[in-house]
């Protein structure tokens, strides 16, 4: 049941007595992988985002120094995926439900004595929800450090492997995600069905964009027929192996930094 996570790093395998007697719980890093169950074109399974967050977290924990205390929770598979509402199979939680699940999970982690929680998210439709949850949790428990982090925002080699167009527009089920799934779950990828389709109808000569500093709200079904935003035909397992190694290596440093992190405190005059 631990999948990519080393069994000794899988939180649910611990007993309550082991948790009760655990030393230095204040600096132990608890990682909550988050993803989604949503369409990823005709060639990829619904589990893409959840698989990526779980694989990156697990492989990072496998590389982590054994003296750094860190554990992964079971992956939260469902996410806020209503942008994919036009495609069958997508299972979406509301903002209110997702916020409630995250905040109530955090309550339990805090009550067990832990003070550092990483929200390791791989679904592009919910970073803002993670950030809202993190702020609310930290406001409730000021000695609880919460890190709302996106799996792709660590230093990695993807930019060296993808085209400029793919880096800008290949945001869903394109080269990067398909390559990663060829590395993580190759038997679930149907490359014979892979397509290249970039967003259609985007504004030109405009400060507004699909993503970026001045975005507009969009639904995936407005931009693509296949559900793909990118070039899935360019994906290879070799690229996926390199990207996964790069991401997981960077996440080792993130976990180390979280373990050492001390919440800023202003001086009182």
For this structure, the quaternary state is: single chain
Judging from the principal axes of the Cα atoms, what is the shape?
globular
Order of helices and strands: HEHEHEHEHHHEHEH
What structural category do the secondary elements indicate?
alpha/beta
Nearest-integer average pLDDT: 97
In which order are the strands of the major sheet placed? 2-1-3-4
Taking all Cα atoms into account, the compactness measure Rg is 19 Å
Just give the CATH class: Alpha Beta
Tell me the span between the first and last alpha carbons: 52 Å
How many domains would you count in the coordinates? 1
The helical percent reads 25-40%
Instruction: Give the uncertain stretches in residue-range form.
Output: none
CATH H-level superfamily title:
Creatininase
Please count the helical segments: 9
Biggest beta-sheet profile: 4 strands, parallel
Query: What fold name stands as the CATH topology?
Result: Rossmann fold
> What's the architecture, going by CATH?
3-Layer(aba) Sandwich
């Amino acid at each position: 049941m631990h999948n990519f996570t080393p069994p000794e790093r899988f939180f649910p395998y611990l007993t309550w007595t082991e948790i009760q007697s655990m030393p230095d719980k204040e600096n132990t890093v608890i990682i909550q992988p988050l993803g989604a169950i949503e369409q990823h074109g005709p060639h990829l399974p619904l589990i893409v985002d959840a698989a990526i967050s779980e694989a990156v977290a697990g492989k990072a924990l496998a590389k982590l120094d054994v003296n750094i205390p860190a554990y992964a929770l079971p992956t939260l598979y469902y996410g806020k995926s209503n942008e994919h509402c036009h495609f069958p199979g997508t299972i979406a939680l509301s903002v209110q439900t997702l916020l409630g699940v995250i905040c109530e999970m955090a309550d339990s982690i805090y009550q067990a004595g832990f003070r550092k929680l990483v929200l390791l998210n791989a679904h592009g439709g919910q970073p803002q929800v993670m950030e809202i949850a993190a702020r609310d949790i930290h406001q409730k428990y000021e000695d609880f450090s919460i890190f709302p982090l996106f799996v792709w925002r660590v230093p990695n080699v993807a930019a060296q492997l993808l085209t400029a167009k793919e880096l800008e527009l290949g945001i869903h089920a394109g080269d990067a995600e398909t390559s990663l799934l060829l590395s993580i779950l190759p038997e679930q990828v149907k490359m014979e069905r892979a397509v290249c389709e970039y967003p259609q109808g985007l504004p030109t000569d405009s400060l507004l964009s699909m993503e970026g500093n001045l975005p507009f709200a969009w639904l995936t079904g407005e931009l693509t027929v296949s559900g793909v935003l990118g070039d899935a035909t360019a994906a290879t397992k070799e690229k996926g192996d390199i990207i996964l190694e790069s991401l997981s290596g960077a996440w080792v440093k993130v976990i180390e930094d979280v373990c050492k992190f001390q919440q800023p405190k202003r001086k009182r005059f």
